[in-house]
Structures are given as structure tokens and as C-alpha cells.
Amino acid sequence: AMDKAGIKHDPRNARTNIYVLVDPNTQDVRYVGKADDVDRRLRDHLGHCKDRGTHCQRWIAKLKDAGQVPVLVIVENVAVPEWPERERHWISHFESLGHPLTNTAPG
């Protein structure tokens, strides 16, 4: 695929972001995720929290009830093929530091 400037993009060079959601009150990392577009992903999190079906959704809903939102921080920009391994790395990292993650699956 070519972009507007006529530069050929190799999908193997595609990159994505590993991000965390941080509790604004405790500064705890509560969720580790992956997103190409983190702004859109945060909007998705905020929109879906009304379902309250997952631990993460219930946590975000509770924040929103208090007029707050989680803080999204990009922890690493990675090559697309590497993201599952890097996401697992960050989940283990924050778990080992004692952060109360709401991720249900280990990666």
C-alpha cells in the first residue's frame, strides 16, 4: 500500500502501542492493553464501561460515577508481530510490582 507521499508501506514494519490505564486516585496501573489508535481505544473503554461486564469495565464505570476517567499512558511502541509477547511482558512487570490489574487474561 502507498500513502499520499507515495511511500510504500511494508506491513512487517507496522507498529502499535502497548498502553496502560492508570487510576487517577491511587496511581495504580489497572489495565495493560494494545492499540494502534490510543485515543480511540480510550473512547471505547469509556463507552463500553456501561456494560459493567468485566472487572475493567466496572472499575472505569466506578471512576466515571465519581466524575473521573482513567489516565492512558503509552509504555511502549512495538512492531506489530511482537505485541502479544510485549503485552504479556508488561502485564507480568506491573503484576510483579503489585499493581492491581483488571486484565482477565494473561496477555
Rg estimate, integer Å: 15 Å
Number of discrete helical segments: 3
Low-confidence stretches: none
Spatial shape: globular
Q: Return the structural class.
A: alpha+beta
Let me know the average pLDDT.
Answer: 90
**Percentage of helical residues?**
25-40%
Distance between the termini: 30 Å
Strand portion: 15-25%
What characterizes the major β-sheet?
A: 3 strands, antiparallel
Question: In words, what does this structure look like?
Answer:
The chain is an alpha+beta fold. The chain has three helices and three strands. It has helices spanning 38-48, 55-65, 83-96; strands spanning 15-22, 29-35, 71-79. A three-stranded antiparallel β-sheet has the order 2-1-3, with helices on both faces. The chain is globular and about 50 Å long.
Task: Give a topology summary.
Layout: E1 15-22, E2 29-35, H1 38-48, H2 55-65, E3 71-79, H3 83-96
Antiparallel strand pairs: 1-2, 1-3
Quick gist of this model?
The protein has three helices and three strands; from the N terminus they run E-E-H-H-E-H. The chain has a three-stranded antiparallel β-sheet with strand order 2-1-3, sandwiched between helices.
Record keyword descriptors for this entry.
107 residues, alpha+beta
